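Backbones bend. Shown next:

***
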Amino acid sequence: MNRNFIKIFALGVAAVFSAGIANAQVRLPEGYFLKTLPNGLDVLVIENSKVPLTTIEIAVKNGAYTEGPEFSGLSHLFEHMFFKANKDYPTQEKFLKRTQELGAIWNGTTNTERVNYYFTFDRDSLKAGLKFMNAAIRFPIYREEDMKKSARWLTVNFSVPKVIRVSSFGMACSKSFGVISLPAKTLSECMK
Protein backbone atom coordinates (compact mmCIF):
# COMPACT_ATOMS: atom_id res chain seq x y z
CA MET A 1 0.00 0.00 0.00
CA ASN A 2 2.90 2.31 0.72
CA ARG A 3 4.18 1.82 -2.85
CA ASN A 4 0.78 2.71 -4.33
CA PHE A 5 0.68 5.88 -2.23
CA ILE A 6 4.13 6.89 -3.48
CA LYS A 7 3.12 6.21 -7.12
CA ILE A 8 -0.10 8.20 -6.77
CA PHE A 9 1.71 11.03 -4.97
CA ALA A 10 4.43 11.14 -7.65
CA LEU A 11 1.84 11.19 -10.45
CA GLY A 12 -0.06 13.99 -8.67
CA VAL A 13 3.09 16.09 -8.31
CA ALA A 14 3.97 15.47 -11.96
CA ALA A 15 0.44 16.51 -13.05
CA VAL A 16 0.56 19.71 -10.99
CA PHE A 17 4.07 20.50 -12.28
CA SER A 18 3.01 19.84 -15.91
CA ALA A 19 -0.06 22.04 -15.56
CA GLY A 20 2.12 24.82 -14.19
CA ILE A 21 4.47 24.57 -17.16
CA ALA A 22 1.56 24.53 -19.64
CA ASN A 23 0.12 27.72 -18.15
CA ALA A 24 3.47 29.49 -17.72
CA GLN A 25 3.97 32.74 -19.59
CA VAL A 26 6.65 32.79 -22.24
CA ARG A 27 9.46 35.02 -21.00
CA LEU A 28 10.42 37.38 -23.80
CA PRO A 29 13.36 39.77 -23.98
CA GLU A 30 12.83 43.42 -23.14
CA GLY A 31 10.98 45.25 -25.91
CA TYR A 32 9.20 42.10 -27.13
CA PHE A 33 5.46 41.76 -26.65
CA LEU A 34 3.36 38.73 -27.59
CA LYS A 35 -0.41 38.54 -27.52
CA THR A 36 -2.82 35.95 -28.88
CA LEU A 37 -6.03 37.54 -30.10
CA PRO A 38 -9.45 35.89 -29.57
CA ASN A 39 -9.39 34.69 -33.20
CA GLY A 40 -6.13 32.78 -32.55
CA LEU A 41 -3.83 35.24 -34.33
CA ASP A 42 -0.49 35.58 -32.54
CA VAL A 43 0.76 39.16 -32.60
CA LEU A 44 4.43 39.73 -31.83
CA VAL A 45 5.69 43.30 -31.46
CA ILE A 46 9.41 43.93 -31.26
CA GLU A 47 10.11 47.49 -30.25
CA ASN A 48 13.44 49.09 -31.20
CA SER A 49 13.36 52.88 -31.05
CA LYS A 50 16.92 53.10 -32.43
CA VAL A 51 15.69 52.13 -35.90
CA PRO A 52 13.38 54.57 -37.73
CA LEU A 53 11.63 51.77 -39.61
CA THR A 54 8.60 49.56 -39.12
CA THR A 55 8.09 46.09 -40.54
CA ILE A 56 4.71 44.40 -40.68
CA GLU A 57 4.92 40.70 -41.44
CA ILE A 58 2.24 38.07 -41.70
CA ALA A 59 3.45 34.48 -41.42
CA VAL A 60 0.91 31.86 -42.47
CA LYS A 61 1.26 28.25 -41.35
CA ASN A 62 0.97 26.81 -44.84
CA GLY A 63 3.34 25.51 -47.47
CA ALA A 64 4.30 22.50 -49.53
CA TYR A 65 4.07 20.05 -46.60
CA THR A 66 0.59 21.24 -45.62
CA GLU A 67 -0.89 21.11 -49.12
CA GLY A 68 -2.58 17.99 -50.34
CA PRO A 69 -1.57 16.80 -53.81
CA GLU A 70 -4.64 18.40 -55.37
CA PHE A 71 -3.51 21.82 -54.05
CA SER A 72 0.23 21.47 -54.57
CA GLY A 73 1.82 24.81 -55.37
CA LEU A 74 -1.13 27.01 -54.38
CA SER A 75 0.76 28.55 -51.44
CA HIS A 76 3.42 29.82 -53.83
CA LEU A 77 0.87 31.00 -56.37
CA PHE A 78 -1.09 32.90 -53.69
CA GLU A 79 2.14 34.45 -52.44
CA HIS A 80 2.61 35.95 -55.91
CA MET A 81 -1.04 36.97 -56.13
CA PHE A 82 -0.85 38.75 -52.76
CA PHE A 83 1.20 41.52 -54.38
CA LYS A 84 -1.13 42.03 -57.34
CA ALA A 85 -4.38 43.65 -56.22
CA ASN A 86 -6.92 43.99 -53.41
CA LYS A 87 -10.15 45.86 -52.69
CA ASP A 88 -8.36 49.15 -51.89
CA TYR A 89 -5.85 48.87 -54.76
CA PRO A 90 -7.69 46.89 -57.47
CA THR A 91 -4.83 46.75 -59.98
CA GLN A 92 -1.16 45.92 -59.64
CA GLU A 93 -0.32 49.42 -60.89
CA LYS A 94 -2.31 50.98 -58.01
CA PHE A 95 -0.82 48.48 -55.56
CA LEU A 96 2.73 49.35 -56.67
CA LYS A 97 1.98 53.07 -56.63
CA ARG A 98 0.85 52.79 -53.00
CA THR A 99 4.00 50.88 -52.00
CA GLN A 100 6.04 53.71 -53.56
CA GLU A 101 4.01 56.35 -51.70
CA LEU A 102 4.71 54.52 -48.44
CA GLY A 103 8.37 54.07 -49.37
CA ALA A 104 7.85 50.37 -48.75
CA ILE A 105 10.30 47.57 -49.24
CA TRP A 106 8.26 44.40 -49.60
CA ASN A 107 8.48 40.75 -50.41
CA GLY A 108 7.19 37.33 -49.54
CA THR A 109 8.58 33.84 -49.30
CA THR A 110 7.10 30.37 -49.53
CA ASN A 111 8.66 27.54 -47.61
CA THR A 112 7.69 23.98 -46.79
CA GLU A 113 5.57 24.91 -43.76
CA ARG A 114 5.21 28.68 -43.93
CA VAL A 115 4.40 31.55 -46.25
CA ASN A 116 5.23 35.07 -45.17
CA TYR A 117 4.46 38.52 -46.53
CA TYR A 118 6.11 41.68 -45.28
CA PHE A 119 6.33 45.42 -45.79
CA THR A 120 9.02 47.65 -44.29
CA PHE A 121 8.64 51.44 -44.29
CA ASP A 122 9.26 54.57 -42.23
CA ARG A 123 7.82 54.17 -38.72
CA ASP A 124 5.64 57.24 -39.21
CA SER A 125 3.72 55.19 -41.80
CA LEU A 126 2.69 52.46 -39.34
CA LYS A 127 -1.04 53.24 -39.38
CA ALA A 128 -1.14 53.52 -43.20
CA GLY A 129 0.96 50.36 -43.47
CA LEU A 130 -1.41 48.39 -41.23
CA LYS A 131 -4.34 49.55 -43.37
CA PHE A 132 -2.45 48.53 -46.52
CA MET A 133 -1.57 45.08 -45.10
CA ASN A 134 -5.16 44.58 -43.91
CA ALA A 135 -6.54 45.11 -47.42
CA ALA A 136 -3.88 42.87 -48.96
CA ILE A 137 -4.31 39.94 -46.57
CA ARG A 138 -8.08 40.08 -46.01
CA PHE A 139 -9.44 41.31 -49.34
CA PRO A 140 -7.23 40.08 -52.19
CA ILE A 141 -8.44 40.18 -55.76
CA TYR A 142 -7.52 37.19 -57.91
CA ARG A 143 -7.95 38.33 -61.49
CA GLU A 144 -7.76 35.64 -64.12
CA GLU A 145 -5.10 37.44 -66.17
CA ASP A 146 -2.88 37.84 -63.08
CA MET A 147 -3.34 34.17 -62.20
CA LYS A 148 -2.32 33.10 -65.71
CA LYS A 149 0.69 35.45 -65.73
CA SER A 150 1.89 34.18 -62.35
CA ALA A 151 1.27 30.56 -63.32
CA ARG A 152 3.37 31.02 -66.48
CA TRP A 153 6.17 32.68 -64.48
CA LEU A 154 6.16 29.90 -61.90
CA THR A 155 6.10 27.22 -64.60
CA VAL A 156 9.07 28.75 -66.48
CA ASN A 157 11.15 29.43 -63.37
CA PHE A 158 10.33 26.21 -61.52
CA SER A 159 10.14 23.62 -64.27
CA VAL A 160 11.96 20.96 -62.25
CA PRO A 161 10.22 19.25 -59.36
CA LYS A 162 10.32 21.58 -56.40
CA VAL A 163 8.78 19.23 -53.86
CA ILE A 164 9.33 15.56 -53.49
CA ARG A 165 7.48 13.89 -50.61
CA VAL A 166 8.04 10.36 -49.48
CA SER A 167 5.45 8.75 -47.22
CA SER A 168 3.80 5.44 -46.55
CA PHE A 169 1.64 6.18 -49.60
CA GLY A 170 4.68 6.33 -51.88
CA MET A 171 6.50 9.23 -53.49
CA ALA A 172 4.74 12.31 -54.78
CA CYS A 173 6.28 15.06 -56.80
CA SER A 174 5.00 18.49 -57.65
CA LYS A 175 6.17 20.05 -60.89
CA SER A 176 5.90 23.81 -61.36
CA PHE A 177 2.96 25.30 -59.45
CA GLY A 178 0.42 22.55 -59.62
CA VAL A 179 1.05 19.93 -62.24
CA ILE A 180 0.99 16.72 -60.24
CA SER A 181 2.46 13.32 -61.00
CA LEU A 182 0.94 10.94 -58.45
CA PRO A 183 1.80 8.42 -57.25
CA ALA A 184 5.38 8.20 -58.42
CA LYS A 185 7.21 4.99 -57.69
CA THR A 186 10.72 6.21 -58.40
CA LEU A 187 12.65 9.44 -58.42
CA SER A 188 13.15 9.10 -62.17
CA GLU A 189 9.34 9.14 -62.58
CA CYS A 190 9.29 12.47 -60.73
CA MET A 191 11.89 13.87 -63.09
CA LYS A 192 9.77 13.17 -66.20
Summary: The longest strand covers residues 53-60. Residues 20-159 form a domain with the Cytochrome Bc1 Complex; Chain A, domain 1 fold (CATH 3.30.830.10). Helices lie at 2-22, 74-82, 92-102, 126-138, 144-157, 187-190.
